[in-house]
Backbone:
């Protein structure tokens, strides 16, 4: 069943063809959305919500998007900055006094957003269940010594990004990041994206499917470097079965446990590509969007082991900014073209064993619709 549902403006027919091809090859179920000038121009879905291919992927099917969630968390920080409630150039300790310990008194909010804070690991925590204790995790981060001088190097903060930004948001607003996102971002936009999923939505979830030849013990880890070695990892290792668990859904892990579909991901992120508004709803001023694409750091990322350009919350790739999640989901925005493209799926691929060009093919197909 590779018949697609939804709709697509005729000039973006290449996107429809790309999704159909992906469902005919690597994907089990997936959704794709494109927004232009803050309005939807593509909203497509198809395939199956389960590995057994017995349950169809529907319009309101949700799945875990893993680190694509970081785009949502970063947006929350930019909303607060635009409202004058958060200074990206201020020390984190100005909002979170305990954070000044262990030489971090001059570590800036901007450093946290750009993965240059020097806190990429959680060495004192070892089990996924430890992640569900917000106070324990944030207290450990407040006491931790940076691995490098903040701002001088970058290293992808896979899990810590969400706790660091989330605690800053909590200190500023008195609300958890998931609650702030629901009330100040998703709610006004009508976006079906959740950081902390209610049991009422469990029936809509398409569980993540491990890569071919892997089981649900498949783990997220730092990628191999060009020399074939991997950065030594300390802390928690997340498996597919963890990301599919009820405990994971109920928690708020703002770096990694968002649930949504391409429609909701594209809608939310199109706010930044369209100078602060989408669907007639304004969340930021035009100037408030600019940190999303202004480069903060360029150089070798110590965790990803590859050259990276980081902005205040996003990876920067030429004219586009955004980020993707473990297994394949992604979102990319182009502020010059006012274009946002999102791809969300349930079939994970292991990039070390198999090239994964699914999302990039969708993005290139979307650009062809602009020509």
Residues:
């Amino acid at each position: 069943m590779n018949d697609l549902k939804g709709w697509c403006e005729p000039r973006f027919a290449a996107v429809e063809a790309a999704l159909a091809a992906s469902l005919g090859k690597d994907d089990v179920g997936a959704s794709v959305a494109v927004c232009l000038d803050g309005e939807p121009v593509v909203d497509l879905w198809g395939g199956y919500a389960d590995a057994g291919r017995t349950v169809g992927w529907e319009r309101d099917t949700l799945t875990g998007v893993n680190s694509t969630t970081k785009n949502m968390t970063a947006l929350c920080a930019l909303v607060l900055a635009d409202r004058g409630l958060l200074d990206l150039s201020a020390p984190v300790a100005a909002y979170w006094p305990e954070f000044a310990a262990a030489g971090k008194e001059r570590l800036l909010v901007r450093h946290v957003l750009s993965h240059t804070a020097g806190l990429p690991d959680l060495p004192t925590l070892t089990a996924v269940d430890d992640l569900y204790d917000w106070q324990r995790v944030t207290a450990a981060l407040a006491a931790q010594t940076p691995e490098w001088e903040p701002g001088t190097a970058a290293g992808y903060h896979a899990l810590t990004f969400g706790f660091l930004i989330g605690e800053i948001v909590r200190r500023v607003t008195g609300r958890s990041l998931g609650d702030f996102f629901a009330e100040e971002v998703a709610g006004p936009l009508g976006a079906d994206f959740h950081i902390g999923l209610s049991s009422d939505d469990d029936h809509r979830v398409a569980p993540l499917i491990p890569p071919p030849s892997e089981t649900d013990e498949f783990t997220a880890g730092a990628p191999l470097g060009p020399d074939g070695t991997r950065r030594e990892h300390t802390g928690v290792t997340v498996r597919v079965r963890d990301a599919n668990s009820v405990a994971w859904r109920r928690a708020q892990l703002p770096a990694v446990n968002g649930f949504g579909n391409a429609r909701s991901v594209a809608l939310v992120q199109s706010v930044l590509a369209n100078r602060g508004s989408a669907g007639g709803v304004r969340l930021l001023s035009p100037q408030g969007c600019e940190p999303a694409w202004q480069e903060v750091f360029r150089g070798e990322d110590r965790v990803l082991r590859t050259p990276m350009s980081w902005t205040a919350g996003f990876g920067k790739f030429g004219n586009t900014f955004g980020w993707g999640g473990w297994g394949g989901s992604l979102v990319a925005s182009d502020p010059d073209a006012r274009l946002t493209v999102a791809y969300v799926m349930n079939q994970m691929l292991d990039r070390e064993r198999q090239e994964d060009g699914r999302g990039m093919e969708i993005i290139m197909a979307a650009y062809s619709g602009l020509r």
In short: Residues 5-368 form a domain with the Beta-lactamase fold (CATH 3.40.710.10). Residues 19 and 362 are 7 Å apart (CA to CA). The longest helix spans residues 69-82. The two ends are 31 Å apart (CA to CA).
